[in-house]
Amino acid sequence: MKCINCGEEIPDGSTFCNKCGASQSISTKRVLLPISVFQKLKQMLEQFGKRFSSLLFKSKRNTIISSVIGIVVVIAIVVPVIYFNNPTEQFMSSLNSNNAAQAMEIYNNKIKGNTDKENIIRKKLINDAKSIYEQFKSGKTDYESALNKLNNFNQTGLASSELESIITNTNALNDSKSAFQKGIDAEKAGDYESAIEQFSKVIKEDSNYKDATEQLASSKNKYISDIVNKASKLTDNEEIKKQIDNITTIESSIGQDNKLDKVIDTLKQKYSNQILQKANSLVKQDKFDDALNLLNDNQKYEYNSNLSSRVTSIKNNEMKTYNTNLFNQLKSQLTINYDEIEKKYDIVPKGYETKYHNLSRTINIEPRITVADSSIYYFLYTGFNQDDWIFMDDIVFACDNKRHEYKVDFSDRKTQVLTGNGIAEWYVMADDSDGSLTGLVSYATDLTDLINDISKSTNNKIRFSGQGFRDHTISVAEKNNVLNLWKFYKLLKSDNSLLTKLS
Q1: Which of 297-301, 437-441, 489-493 shows the highest mean pLDDT?
Q2: Rounded Cα distance, 413 and 426, in Å
Q3: Residue 377: beta bridge partners?
Protein backbone atom coordinates (compact mmCIF):
# COMPACT_ATOMS: atom_id res chain seq x y z
CA MET A 1 0.00 0.00 0.00
CA LYS A 2 0.97 3.65 -0.48
CA CYS A 3 0.99 6.47 2.12
CA ILE A 4 -2.10 8.63 1.71
CA ASN A 5 0.05 11.67 2.43
CA CYS A 6 3.38 11.32 0.55
CA GLY A 7 2.67 8.33 -1.70
CA GLU A 8 5.62 6.28 -0.35
CA GLU A 9 5.27 2.48 -0.43
CA ILE A 10 4.61 1.15 3.11
CA PRO A 11 3.73 -2.34 4.49
CA ASP A 12 0.07 -3.35 4.15
CA GLY A 13 -1.99 -2.57 7.30
CA SER A 14 0.36 0.21 8.53
CA THR A 15 -1.23 2.77 10.82
CA PHE A 16 1.41 5.42 10.21
CA CYS A 17 3.79 6.17 7.31
CA ASN A 18 7.43 5.18 8.02
CA LYS A 19 8.66 8.20 6.06
CA CYS A 20 6.36 11.12 6.88
CA GLY A 21 4.55 9.71 9.96
CA ALA A 22 1.10 10.52 8.59
CA SER A 23 -1.85 8.50 9.93
CA GLN A 24 -3.27 6.08 7.36
CA SER A 25 -6.77 5.93 8.80
CA ILE A 26 -9.58 8.42 8.52
CA SER A 27 -11.59 8.87 11.69
CA THR A 28 -15.35 9.10 11.32
CA LYS A 29 -15.61 10.88 14.64
CA ARG A 30 -16.69 14.50 14.82
CA VAL A 31 -13.52 16.56 15.14
CA LEU A 32 -12.53 20.16 15.73
CA LEU A 33 -10.38 21.48 12.88
CA PRO A 34 -7.20 23.36 13.73
CA ILE A 35 -7.06 27.10 13.04
CA SER A 36 -4.65 26.54 10.11
CA VAL A 37 -7.25 24.36 8.39
CA PHE A 38 -9.94 26.99 8.80
CA GLN A 39 -7.58 29.60 7.39
CA LYS A 40 -6.94 27.51 4.22
CA LEU A 41 -10.67 26.87 3.84
CA LYS A 42 -11.37 30.54 4.24
CA GLN A 43 -8.91 31.35 1.46
CA MET A 44 -10.42 28.74 -0.82
CA LEU A 45 -13.99 29.96 -0.10
CA GLU A 46 -12.96 33.57 -0.77
CA GLN A 47 -11.51 32.52 -4.10
CA PHE A 48 -14.68 30.52 -4.78
CA GLY A 49 -16.79 33.56 -3.91
CA LYS A 50 -14.98 35.74 -6.44
CA ARG A 51 -15.27 33.07 -9.09
CA PHE A 52 -18.92 32.47 -8.21
CA SER A 53 -19.67 36.21 -8.62
CA SER A 54 -18.11 36.38 -12.05
CA LEU A 55 -19.97 33.26 -13.04
CA LEU A 56 -23.27 34.87 -12.04
CA PHE A 57 -22.61 37.73 -14.39
CA LYS A 58 -21.93 35.30 -17.15
CA SER A 59 -25.16 33.51 -16.30
CA LYS A 60 -23.73 30.17 -17.17
CA ARG A 61 -25.61 27.56 -15.00
CA ASN A 62 -23.49 24.59 -15.99
CA THR A 63 -20.24 26.39 -15.26
CA ILE A 64 -21.49 27.29 -11.72
CA ILE A 65 -22.49 23.75 -10.92
CA SER A 66 -19.22 22.36 -12.20
CA SER A 67 -17.24 24.87 -10.20
CA VAL A 68 -19.14 24.12 -6.99
CA ILE A 69 -18.62 20.41 -7.40
CA GLY A 70 -14.94 20.97 -8.04
CA ILE A 71 -14.47 23.05 -4.93
CA VAL A 72 -16.32 20.50 -2.77
CA VAL A 73 -14.07 17.78 -4.09
CA VAL A 74 -11.00 19.89 -3.33
CA ILE A 75 -12.22 20.51 0.25
CA ALA A 76 -12.95 16.82 0.72
CA ILE A 77 -9.41 15.98 -0.26
CA VAL A 78 -7.52 18.84 1.34
CA VAL A 79 -9.19 18.94 4.76
CA PRO A 80 -8.40 15.34 5.79
CA VAL A 81 -4.86 15.67 4.51
CA ILE A 82 -4.28 18.87 6.46
CA TYR A 83 -6.09 17.55 9.58
CA PHE A 84 -4.44 14.17 9.80
CA ASN A 85 -1.04 15.60 9.00
CA ASN A 86 -1.35 17.64 12.24
CA PRO A 87 0.79 15.86 14.89
CA THR A 88 -1.30 17.15 17.81
CA GLU A 89 -4.40 15.57 16.27
CA GLN A 90 -2.45 12.38 15.57
CA PHE A 91 -1.42 12.35 19.22
CA MET A 92 -4.95 12.79 20.57
CA SER A 93 -6.38 10.32 18.06
CA SER A 94 -3.98 7.63 19.25
CA LEU A 95 -4.60 8.47 22.88
CA ASN A 96 -8.38 8.33 22.49
CA SER A 97 -7.91 4.93 20.86
CA ASN A 98 -6.25 3.76 24.10
CA ASN A 99 -2.87 3.54 22.37
CA ALA A 100 -0.73 5.57 24.76
CA ALA A 101 2.49 4.05 23.42
CA GLN A 102 1.76 5.20 19.88
CA ALA A 103 0.68 8.61 21.15
CA MET A 104 3.95 9.09 23.00
CA GLU A 105 5.91 8.01 19.95
CA ILE A 106 4.21 10.79 17.99
CA TYR A 107 4.83 13.22 20.83
CA ASN A 108 8.51 12.42 21.08
CA ASN A 109 9.07 12.52 17.28
CA LYS A 110 6.87 15.43 16.18
CA ILE A 111 5.86 17.52 19.20
CA LYS A 112 8.50 17.44 21.90
CA GLY A 113 10.71 20.50 21.83
CA ASN A 114 8.06 22.62 20.13
CA THR A 115 6.75 24.84 22.91
CA ASP A 116 3.58 25.82 21.06
CA LYS A 117 2.63 22.25 20.25
CA GLU A 118 3.50 21.08 23.78
CA ASN A 119 1.20 23.74 25.23
CA ILE A 120 -1.56 22.73 22.82
CA ILE A 121 -1.25 19.09 23.95
CA ARG A 122 -1.38 20.01 27.64
CA LYS A 123 -4.47 22.17 27.10
CA LYS A 124 -6.16 19.41 25.11
CA LEU A 125 -5.43 16.85 27.82
CA ILE A 126 -6.76 19.09 30.58
CA ASN A 127 -9.84 20.20 28.66
CA ASP A 128 -10.71 16.67 27.60
CA ALA A 129 -10.17 15.43 31.18
CA LYS A 130 -12.48 18.13 32.51
CA SER A 131 -15.05 17.15 29.92
CA ILE A 132 -14.82 13.49 31.00
CA TYR A 133 -15.30 14.52 34.66
CA GLU A 134 -18.38 16.60 33.75
CA GLN A 135 -19.82 13.72 31.75
CA PHE A 136 -19.40 11.42 34.77
CA LYS A 137 -20.85 14.08 37.05
CA SER A 138 -23.97 14.41 34.86
CA GLY A 139 -24.33 10.66 34.48
CA LYS A 140 -23.54 10.57 30.76
CA THR A 141 -20.70 8.12 31.34
CA ASP A 142 -19.95 5.55 34.02
CA TYR A 143 -17.15 5.68 36.58
CA GLU A 144 -15.09 2.86 35.13
CA SER A 145 -15.05 4.35 31.63
CA ALA A 146 -14.23 7.82 32.91
CA LEU A 147 -11.43 6.56 35.14
CA ASN A 148 -9.90 4.44 32.37
CA LYS A 149 -9.76 7.44 30.04
CA LEU A 150 -8.30 9.70 32.70
CA ASN A 151 -5.68 7.14 33.71
CA ASN A 152 -4.80 6.73 30.03
CA PHE A 153 -4.27 10.49 29.79
CA ASN A 154 -2.18 10.48 32.95
CA GLN A 155 0.10 7.72 31.66
CA THR A 156 1.60 10.23 29.25
CA GLY A 157 3.17 12.11 32.16
CA LEU A 158 1.99 15.38 30.60
CA ALA A 159 0.06 17.85 32.76
CA SER A 160 0.27 15.23 35.51
CA SER A 161 -0.55 17.56 38.43
CA GLU A 162 -3.75 18.84 36.80
CA LEU A 163 -4.78 15.35 35.65
CA GLU A 164 -4.14 13.80 39.05
CA SER A 165 -6.31 16.49 40.63
CA ILE A 166 -9.14 15.66 38.20
CA ILE A 167 -8.70 11.93 38.90
CA THR A 168 -8.86 12.64 42.64
CA ASN A 169 -12.05 14.63 42.17
CA THR A 170 -13.50 11.84 40.05
CA ASN A 171 -12.75 9.25 42.74
CA ALA A 172 -14.23 11.50 45.42
CA LEU A 173 -17.35 11.99 43.35
CA ASN A 174 -17.67 8.24 42.84
CA ASP A 175 -17.31 7.64 46.58
CA SER A 176 -19.98 10.24 47.16
CA LYS A 177 -22.39 8.61 44.69
CA SER A 178 -21.72 5.23 46.27
CA ALA A 179 -22.31 6.64 49.78
CA PHE A 180 -25.62 8.12 48.69
CA GLN A 181 -26.86 4.76 47.41
CA LYS A 182 -25.66 2.99 50.56
CA GLY A 183 -27.50 5.60 52.60
CA ILE A 184 -30.71 4.95 50.67
CA ASP A 185 -30.38 1.19 51.22
CA ALA A 186 -29.61 1.60 54.94
CA GLU A 187 -32.54 3.95 55.47
CA LYS A 188 -34.92 1.48 53.79
CA ALA A 189 -33.59 -1.28 56.06
CA GLY A 190 -34.19 0.83 59.17
CA ASP A 191 -30.47 1.15 59.91
CA TYR A 192 -30.62 4.90 60.55
CA GLU A 193 -27.19 5.10 62.15
CA SER A 194 -25.54 3.75 58.98
CA ALA A 195 -27.79 5.92 56.82
CA ILE A 196 -26.64 9.04 58.69
CA GLU A 197 -23.02 8.00 58.27
CA GLN A 198 -23.39 7.48 54.52
CA PHE A 199 -25.47 10.58 53.74
CA SER A 200 -22.89 12.66 55.61
CA LYS A 201 -20.25 11.54 53.08
CA VAL A 202 -22.09 13.03 50.07
CA ILE A 203 -20.18 16.05 48.71
CA LYS A 204 -21.54 19.29 47.27
CA GLU A 205 -20.23 18.45 43.77
CA ASP A 206 -22.53 15.42 43.73
CA SER A 207 -25.87 15.94 41.96
CA ASN A 208 -27.37 13.92 44.84
CA TYR A 209 -26.22 16.47 47.43
CA LYS A 210 -29.58 18.18 47.88
CA ASP A 211 -31.41 14.86 48.22
CA ALA A 212 -28.70 13.57 50.56
CA THR A 213 -29.11 16.63 52.81
CA GLU A 214 -32.87 16.03 53.02
CA GLN A 215 -32.39 12.30 53.61
CA LEU A 216 -29.80 13.03 56.30
CA ALA A 217 -32.23 15.20 58.24
CA SER A 218 -34.97 12.59 57.88
CA SER A 219 -32.70 9.75 59.03
CA LYS A 220 -31.55 11.79 62.04
CA ASN A 221 -35.15 12.37 63.12
CA LYS A 222 -36.03 8.70 62.71
CA TYR A 223 -32.83 7.67 64.52
CA ILE A 224 -33.52 10.00 67.44
CA SER A 225 -37.12 8.79 67.73
CA ASP A 226 -35.90 5.20 67.72
CA ILE A 227 -33.36 5.94 70.47
CA VAL A 228 -35.95 7.74 72.60
CA ASN A 229 -38.35 4.81 72.26
CA LYS A 230 -35.74 2.18 73.17
CA ALA A 231 -34.35 4.22 76.06
CA SER A 232 -37.74 4.47 77.74
CA LYS A 233 -37.90 0.66 77.98
CA LEU A 234 -34.48 0.10 79.57
CA THR A 235 -34.41 -1.19 83.15
CA ASP A 236 -31.04 -2.90 83.56
CA ASN A 237 -28.40 -0.51 84.84
CA GLU A 238 -25.63 -1.92 82.67
CA GLU A 239 -27.79 -1.45 79.58
CA ILE A 240 -28.71 2.05 80.75
CA LYS A 241 -25.05 2.97 81.15
CA LYS A 242 -24.22 1.57 77.69
CA GLN A 243 -27.02 3.64 76.17
CA ILE A 244 -25.82 6.82 77.90
CA ASP A 245 -22.34 6.28 76.50
CA ASN A 246 -23.82 5.43 73.09
CA ILE A 247 -25.95 8.57 72.89
CA THR A 248 -22.99 10.70 73.97
CA THR A 249 -20.98 9.20 71.12
CA ILE A 250 -23.86 9.75 68.69
CA GLU A 251 -24.10 13.44 69.57
CA SER A 252 -20.41 13.88 68.93
CA SER A 253 -20.99 12.78 65.33
CA ILE A 254 -24.46 14.09 64.44
CA GLY A 255 -24.46 17.13 66.68
CA GLN A 256 -26.21 17.97 69.94
CA ASP A 257 -29.96 17.42 70.06
CA ASN A 258 -32.42 18.57 72.72
CA LYS A 259 -34.38 15.31 72.60
CA LEU A 260 -31.23 13.27 73.08
CA ASP A 261 -30.06 15.56 75.89
CA LYS A 262 -33.36 14.96 77.70
CA VAL A 263 -33.00 11.20 77.19
CA ILE A 264 -29.50 11.29 78.68
CA ASP A 265 -30.74 13.23 81.71
CA THR A 266 -33.61 10.79 82.19
CA LEU A 267 -31.33 7.75 81.91
CA LYS A 268 -28.79 9.24 84.31
CA GLN A 269 -31.54 9.88 86.84
CA LYS A 270 -32.91 6.36 86.41
CA TYR A 271 -29.42 4.86 86.76
CA SER A 272 -28.63 6.88 89.90
CA ASN A 273 -31.99 6.10 91.51
CA GLN A 274 -31.40 2.39 91.05
CA ILE A 275 -27.91 2.68 92.57
CA LEU A 276 -29.37 4.55 95.53
CA GLN A 277 -32.04 1.87 95.97
CA LYS A 278 -29.45 -0.90 95.96
CA ALA A 279 -27.23 1.02 98.39
CA ASN A 280 -30.15 1.63 100.75
CA SER A 281 -31.03 -2.06 100.61
CA LEU A 282 -27.45 -2.95 101.59
CA VAL A 283 -27.55 -0.44 104.44
CA LYS A 284 -30.69 -2.12 105.82
CA GLN A 285 -28.72 -5.38 105.84
CA ASP A 286 -25.89 -3.63 107.74
CA LYS A 287 -23.63 -4.15 104.73
CA PHE A 288 -22.19 -0.67 104.92
CA ASP A 289 -18.92 -1.40 103.17
CA ASP A 290 -20.77 -2.92 100.21
CA ALA A 291 -23.12 0.07 100.08
CA LEU A 292 -20.27 2.58 100.21
CA ASN A 293 -18.27 0.69 97.59
CA LEU A 294 -21.30 0.64 95.29
CA LEU A 295 -21.85 4.38 95.66
CA ASN A 296 -18.18 5.28 95.34
CA ASP A 297 -17.75 3.10 92.24
CA ASN A 298 -20.59 4.94 90.50
CA GLN A 299 -19.69 8.48 91.55
CA LYS A 300 -17.11 8.55 88.76
CA TYR A 301 -19.91 8.69 86.18
CA GLU A 302 -21.14 11.95 87.72
CA TYR A 303 -24.72 11.07 86.89
CA ASN A 304 -26.15 12.39 90.13
CA SER A 305 -24.62 14.36 92.99
CA ASN A 306 -27.00 12.51 95.35
CA LEU A 307 -24.59 9.58 95.27
CA SER A 308 -21.88 11.63 96.93
CA SER A 309 -24.23 13.07 99.55
CA ARG A 310 -25.56 9.59 100.31
CA VAL A 311 -22.01 8.40 101.05
CA THR A 312 -21.63 11.17 103.60
CA SER A 313 -25.05 10.42 105.04
CA ILE A 314 -24.32 6.73 105.53
CA LYS A 315 -21.00 7.42 107.24
CA ASN A 316 -22.41 10.09 109.56
CA ASN A 317 -25.74 8.48 110.36
CA GLU A 318 -26.57 4.82 109.77
CA MET A 319 -22.98 3.59 109.86
CA LYS A 320 -22.12 5.69 112.89
CA THR A 321 -25.12 4.38 114.78
CA TYR A 322 -24.41 0.84 113.68
CA ASN A 323 -20.74 1.04 114.66
CA THR A 324 -21.59 2.38 118.09
CA ASN A 325 -24.14 -0.35 118.69
CA LEU A 326 -21.79 -3.05 117.40
CA PHE A 327 -18.94 -1.66 119.49
CA ASN A 328 -21.00 -1.86 122.64
CA GLN A 329 -22.26 -5.33 121.76
CA LEU A 330 -18.78 -6.73 121.10
CA LYS A 331 -17.18 -4.91 124.02
CA SER A 332 -19.50 -6.74 126.40
CA GLN A 333 -17.99 -10.04 125.20
CA LEU A 334 -14.36 -8.93 125.69
CA THR A 335 -11.84 -8.35 128.42
CA ILE A 336 -10.03 -5.03 128.02
CA ASN A 337 -7.01 -4.13 130.12
CA TYR A 338 -5.09 -0.85 130.00
CA ASP A 339 -1.42 -0.87 131.01
CA GLU A 340 -0.57 2.60 132.29
CA ILE A 341 3.17 1.92 132.20
CA GLU A 342 3.27 0.72 128.58
CA LYS A 343 0.28 2.91 127.65
CA LYS A 344 -1.47 0.21 125.68
CA TYR A 345 -4.68 -1.77 125.63
CA ASP A 346 -4.72 -5.56 125.60
CA ILE A 347 -8.03 -7.00 124.39
CA VAL A 348 -8.92 -10.71 124.65
CA PRO A 349 -12.11 -12.82 124.74
CA LYS A 350 -14.13 -12.41 127.95
CA GLY A 351 -12.70 -14.47 130.76
CA TYR A 352 -9.24 -14.74 129.19
CA GLU A 353 -6.09 -13.48 130.90
CA THR A 354 -4.48 -10.42 129.23
CA LYS A 355 -1.01 -10.79 130.82
CA TYR A 356 -0.16 -14.09 129.17
CA HIS A 357 -1.57 -16.41 126.50
CA ASN A 358 -4.41 -18.77 127.31
CA LEU A 359 -3.42 -21.76 125.13
CA SER A 360 -3.92 -25.14 126.75
CA ARG A 361 -4.63 -28.76 125.99
CA THR A 362 -8.15 -27.74 124.82
CA ILE A 363 -7.62 -24.19 123.60
CA ASN A 364 -5.29 -24.23 120.56
CA ILE A 365 -6.17 -20.89 118.94
CA GLU A 366 -6.52 -17.51 120.68
CA PRO A 367 -7.11 -14.03 119.18
CA ARG A 368 -5.75 -10.81 120.70
CA ILE A 369 -5.90 -7.10 119.97
CA THR A 370 -3.28 -4.60 121.08
CA VAL A 371 -3.85 -0.85 120.84
CA ALA A 372 -0.85 1.44 121.33
CA ASP A 373 -0.55 5.09 120.29
CA SER A 374 -3.66 4.76 118.10
CA SER A 375 -2.07 1.81 116.28
CA ILE A 376 -4.24 -1.30 116.24
CA TYR A 377 -2.86 -4.84 115.90
CA TYR A 378 -4.61 -8.22 115.61
CA PHE A 379 -2.67 -11.31 116.75
CA LEU A 380 -3.58 -14.96 116.36
CA TYR A 381 -1.90 -17.28 118.87
CA THR A 382 -1.82 -20.93 117.70
CA GLY A 383 -0.29 -23.68 119.84
CA PHE A 384 -0.89 -26.31 122.50
CA ASN A 385 0.02 -27.88 125.83
CA GLN A 386 0.77 -31.60 125.92
CA ASP A 387 3.17 -34.18 127.33
CA ASP A 388 5.61 -34.50 124.41
CA TRP A 389 7.53 -32.13 122.16
CA ILE A 390 6.63 -31.80 118.50
CA PHE A 391 9.03 -29.00 117.64
CA MET A 392 6.51 -27.75 115.10
CA ASP A 393 7.75 -26.16 111.91
CA ASP A 394 4.49 -26.22 109.96
CA ILE A 395 0.87 -25.26 110.74
CA VAL A 396 -2.02 -26.19 108.42
CA PHE A 397 -5.60 -24.93 108.74
CA ALA A 398 -8.23 -27.10 107.03
CA CYS A 399 -11.45 -25.09 106.61
CA ASP A 400 -13.83 -27.52 104.92
CA ASN A 401 -12.19 -27.84 101.50
CA LYS A 402 -9.86 -24.79 101.89
CA ARG A 403 -6.25 -25.11 103.15
CA HIS A 404 -3.95 -22.47 104.63
CA GLU A 405 -0.35 -23.43 105.40
CA TYR A 406 2.15 -21.44 107.45
CA LYS A 407 5.85 -22.27 107.84
CA VAL A 408 7.19 -21.74 111.37
CA ASP A 409 10.73 -20.45 111.58
CA PHE A 410 12.84 -21.80 114.40
CA SER A 411 13.39 -18.30 115.78
CA ASP A 412 9.63 -17.59 115.81
CA ARG A 413 8.55 -20.84 117.51
CA LYS A 414 7.85 -20.33 121.20
CA THR A 415 8.31 -23.16 123.75
CA GLN A 416 7.92 -23.55 127.51
CA VAL A 417 8.28 -26.33 130.03
CA LEU A 418 5.23 -26.17 132.24
CA THR A 419 5.33 -26.27 136.00
CA GLY A 420 4.58 -29.74 137.21
CA ASN A 421 3.95 -31.70 134.01
CA GLY A 422 3.98 -31.12 130.25
CA ILE A 423 5.31 -28.63 127.69
CA ALA A 424 3.92 -25.76 125.62
CA GLU A 425 4.60 -24.81 121.99
CA TRP A 426 3.05 -21.87 120.17
CA TYR A 427 3.39 -19.51 117.25
CA VAL A 428 2.08 -15.97 116.85
CA MET A 429 0.74 -14.49 113.59
CA ALA A 430 0.13 -10.74 113.21
CA ASP A 431 -2.39 -9.45 110.66
CA ASP A 432 -0.80 -7.30 107.96
CA SER A 433 -3.77 -6.82 105.68
CA ASP A 434 -2.94 -3.10 105.41
CA GLY A 435 0.80 -3.68 104.82
CA SER A 436 1.86 -1.65 107.87
CA LEU A 437 3.98 -4.50 109.33
CA THR A 438 5.60 -5.70 106.12
CA GLY A 439 9.33 -6.03 106.63
CA LEU A 440 9.11 -5.23 110.34
CA VAL A 441 8.34 -8.68 111.77
CA SER A 442 8.73 -12.13 110.23
CA TYR A 443 5.37 -13.36 111.51
CA ALA A 444 3.35 -10.59 109.80
CA THR A 445 0.81 -11.94 107.29
CA ASP A 446 -2.57 -11.07 105.79
CA LEU A 447 -5.10 -13.05 107.86
CA THR A 448 -8.17 -11.92 105.90
CA ASP A 449 -8.66 -15.08 103.82
CA LEU A 450 -8.02 -17.40 106.77
CA ILE A 451 -10.54 -15.59 108.99
CA ASN A 452 -13.15 -15.52 106.20
CA ASP A 453 -12.75 -19.24 105.54
CA ILE A 454 -12.99 -20.07 109.26
CA SER A 455 -16.18 -17.99 109.35
CA LYS A 456 -17.77 -19.77 106.37
CA SER A 457 -16.69 -23.32 107.22
CA THR A 458 -18.53 -25.80 109.47
CA ASN A 459 -15.50 -28.00 110.05
CA ASN A 460 -12.26 -26.23 110.98
CA LYS A 461 -9.14 -28.17 111.96
CA ILE A 462 -5.50 -27.35 112.77
CA ARG A 463 -2.53 -29.66 112.25
CA PHE A 464 0.77 -28.85 114.00
CA SER A 465 3.63 -30.75 112.30
CA GLY A 466 7.30 -31.26 113.18
CA GLN A 467 9.01 -34.35 114.48
CA GLY A 468 5.50 -35.51 115.12
CA PHE A 469 2.08 -33.90 114.66
CA ARG A 470 -0.99 -32.83 116.60
CA ASP A 471 -4.51 -32.38 115.20
CA HIS A 472 -7.05 -30.08 116.79
CA THR A 473 -10.68 -29.35 115.88
CA ILE A 474 -11.53 -25.69 116.44
CA SER A 475 -14.46 -25.51 118.84
CA VAL A 476 -17.51 -23.26 118.44
CA ALA A 477 -16.25 -21.11 121.32
CA GLU A 478 -12.79 -20.74 119.73
CA LYS A 479 -14.36 -19.89 116.36
CA ASN A 480 -16.64 -17.22 117.90
CA ASN A 481 -13.73 -15.70 119.79
CA VAL A 482 -11.66 -15.46 116.59
CA LEU A 483 -14.53 -13.84 114.66
CA ASN A 484 -15.63 -11.44 117.42
CA LEU A 485 -12.11 -10.13 117.97
CA TRP A 486 -11.72 -9.76 114.19
CA LYS A 487 -14.97 -7.72 113.96
CA PHE A 488 -13.84 -5.54 116.86
CA TYR A 489 -10.42 -5.08 115.23
CA LYS A 490 -11.93 -4.03 111.87
CA LEU A 491 -14.38 -1.75 113.65
CA LEU A 492 -11.62 0.10 115.49
CA LYS A 493 -9.59 0.36 112.26
CA SER A 494 -12.53 1.89 110.37
CA ASP A 495 -13.58 4.35 113.09
CA ASN A 496 -10.75 5.62 115.29
CA SER A 497 -13.20 7.71 117.31
CA LEU A 498 -14.24 4.48 119.01
CA LEU A 499 -10.82 4.20 120.65
CA THR A 500 -11.94 6.79 123.22
CA LYS A 501 -14.64 4.39 124.35
CA LEU A 502 -12.29 1.50 125.19
CA SER A 503 -11.87 2.56 128.83
Answers
A1: 489-493
A2: 6
A3: 370
Q: Which CATH number fits domain 333-501: 1.20.120, 3.30.310, 2.60.40, 2.20.25?
A: 2.60.40
On average, the pLDDT of the chain sits at 85
Q: Which secondary structure element, helix H or strand E, spans residue 329, and what is its range? A: helix 319-331
For 258-322, give the DSSP string. HHHHHHHHHHHHHHHHHHHHHHHHHHHTT-HHHHHHHHHHHHTT-S-THHHHHHHHIIIIIHHHH
Q: How many whole angstroms separate alpha carbon 366 and alpha carbon 443?
A: 16
Quick count: other Cβ atoms within 10 Å of Cβ 179? Answer: 20
Q: In which band, very low, low, confident or very high, does the pLDDT at 355 lie, cut at 50, 70 and 90?
A: very high
pLDDT at 62 over 50: yes
CA–CA dist 95, 143 (Å, integer)? 19
* pLDDT number for residue 52: 47
Taking alpha carbons only, the member of 42, 66, 40 closest to residue 55 is 66
Burial of 322 (0-12, 13-18, 19+ CB in 10 A): middle
In this structure, what are the phi and psi dihedrals at residue 378, rounded to the nearest 5 degrees? -115, 125
Of the candidates 156, 154, 211, 148, the one whose C-alpha atom is nearest the C-alpha of residue 179 is 211
Cα angle for residues 169, 174, 178 (degrees, 5° grid): 150
SS (HEC) of 111-124: HCCCHHHHHHHHHH
Q: Is 438 left (phi over 0), alpha (psi -120 to 50) or beta?
A: beta
**C-alpha 333, offset from chain centre:** 57
Tell me: pLDDT of 16 over 80: no
pLDDT of residue 230 exceeding 90, the answer is no
Q: What pLDDT shows up at residue 179?
A: 96
Distance CA 177, CA 15 (A): 40
CA 16/CA 25 separation, integer angstroms = 8
What DSSP string describes 442-461? TTEE--HHHHHHHHH-S-EE
CA atoms within 13 A on the CB side of 168: 6
Rounded to the nearest 10 degrees, the angle between the axes of helix 258-284 and helix 209-231 is 20
What letters, b where the CB count within 10 A reaches 16 and e where it falls short, cover 370-389? Answer: bbeeeebbbbbbbbbbbeee
Distances in Å between the Cα of 458 and the Cα atoms of 171, 301, 485 are 76, 42, 19
5, β-bridge pairs: none
